[in-house]
Amino acid sequence: MENYKIKRFESQVGEIPLVVFRPEGYTGKYKTIIHYHGWSSAVETYELFGAIFAHYGFQVVLPEVIKHGVRGEADNYESYLETFDVIVQSIEEYDELKDFIINELDGDSNNLIISGHSMGGIISSAIFVRDLSLKAAIIYNSIINYEEFHDRIAGNIELDERLMEVFRRYDPMTMLENFNNRNMLIFVGEEDSIIPVEVMLGFQDRIKDAGIIDEKIVYSFHSDGAHSITYKMLDEALDYLLFMLNEE
């Protein structure tokens, strides 16, 4: 496993600002991790995340989402509807982002990994079921079942029929077959007070009930860290990727 010096730079595609980390001296197309941050966070929070994976040979692209960082602020960070806006727009921006990564950032189209924490995991899971070319998904402390997201996060908020139609369109549970025999690493916080462990257990049940081949879906339960990404998780994610890509 080779270690690299790290190059960090900023870029932009369309309206999407990017922070990019890559391994200096790496030859060929870059194995690339696209990582989405959580609600009320910002790409700057994940500088260490990007540096760690770049040190071990991965290009890491951190896209900023609307209502965060240099793309402005939410009117109300307690608002479920504003969270929903960010999720939907991020999913819709993905194709443009992916093309830019492949064509302008020398990303290896055969080795693209989608990743996300909390809200970023909600975004990433929807992208994963829509882009079958993705090599893997790594989900940290998140929800894959959008109905669970609505029920547990929204409280008493009612979505009108137009919003419900959009909600169903992006729900990964409507495309369960696209989880079939695909690489996923899912981190679950047993002490997470924001995303209860039962949420991911429900996803496991849905996958099994649908007859999905899930041998490549790895669930990692952690009793520490609550609703945060820990160093232990990063170490495990790195080992997972290196093993999957036969780099160890």
Q: Could you describe the largest sheet, including whether it forms a barrel? A: 8 strands, mixed
Q: Order of SSEs, N→C? A: EEEHEHEHEHHEHEH
| Whole-angstrom Rg | 17 Å
| Domain unit count | 1
Tally of strands? 8
Give, in spatial order, the strands making up the sheet with the most strands: 1-2-4-3-5-6-7-8
Structural class: alpha/beta
Measured distance between first and last alpha carbons: 6 Å
Report what the structure shows.
This protein has 248 residues and is α/β, with parallel strands linked by helices. It contains 7 helices and 8 strands. The protein has an 8-stranded mixed β-sheet, sandwiched between helices. β3 (30-36), α1 (47-55) and β4 (59-63) form a beta-alpha-beta unit. α2 crosses α3. The longest helix is centred in the middle third of the chain and has 24 residues, at 80-103. The termini are close together. The model has no long low-confidence stretch (mean pLDDT 91).
Topology:
Layout: E1 6-13, E2 16-23, E3 30-36, H1 47-55, E4 59-63, H2 80-103, E5 107-117, H3 119-130, E6 136-140, H4 146-153, H5 161-170, E7 184-189, H6 197-209, E8 217-222, H7 231-244
Parallel strand pairs: 3-4, 3-5, 5-6, 6-7, 7-8
Antiparallel strand pairs: 1-2, 2-4
Helix pairs in contact: 2-3
Key structural traits:
alpha/beta, 7 helices
